[in-house]
Design the sequence.
């Protein structure tokens, strides 16, 4: 896939997931944080929650494609740092996917109550899943933010892309690095998502990109 197209897809999926989360998932989550409310969730509400999870899975996949495209076009394959970056992308994406999948099923087992179990049992389940999802999310964002920032700085140092093009991506990565210390607070991630969208727009709205090896042309 071409880098410009990958940036467009990454930006669109990130904006779609962010807007859906703010308009649909956030009010839904605030209503469902009480165990008594969570036990009375409808099947339609649960599917709205899971749909948000699918949006974020697409966003993670599009982010991977964008970084792989950047590395494919501009990073020398033989370098050790390039191979380390590839490994970090895979590990961070795996942790993020696990976190999203756990979160998608946070409100899914309402049959616990229908089988006669007490409300406290459902509350323990919710807390357990939430802590597991947040822990995986924090680790994934730490590694994902780190490798995103690393790639952005690396391409600037190698004189492959202009510094101004890479600054939004580096800002998004640096803000994501703070996640293990700030979660479940999400304000820094909203700013990171905005910076990431600006970065994707910076790359995706261009007609052409600089050649990786202009001396050979």
Sequence:
């Amino acid at each position: 896939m071409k880098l410009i197209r990958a940036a467009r897809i990454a930006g669109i999926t990130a904006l779609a997931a962010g807007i859906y989360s703010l308009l649909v998932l956030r009010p839904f989550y605030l209503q469902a944080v009480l165990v008594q409310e969570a036990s009375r969730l409808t099947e339609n509400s649960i599917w709205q929650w899971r749909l948000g999870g699918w949006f974020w899975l697409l966003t993670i996949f599009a982010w991977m494609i964008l970084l792989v495209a950047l590395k494919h076009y501009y990073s020398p394959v033989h370098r050790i740092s390039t191979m380390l970056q590839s490994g970090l992308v895979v590990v961070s994406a795996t942790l993020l996917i696990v976190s999203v999948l756990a979160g998608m099923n946070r409100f899914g087992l309402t049959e616990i109550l229908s089988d006669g179990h007490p409300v406290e049992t459902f509350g323990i389940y919710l807390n357990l899943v939430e802590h597991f999802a947040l822990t995986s999310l924090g680790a994934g964002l730490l590694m994902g933010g780190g490798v995103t920032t690393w790639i952005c700085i690396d391409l600037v140092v190698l004189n492959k892309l202009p510094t101004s093009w890479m600054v939004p991506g580096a800002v998004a990565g640096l803000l994501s690095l703070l996640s293990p210390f700030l979660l479940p607070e999400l304000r820094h991630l909203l700013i990171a998502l905005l910076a990431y969208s600006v970065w994707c727009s910076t790359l995706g709205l261009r007609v052409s990109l600089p050649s990786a090896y202009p001396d050979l042309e």
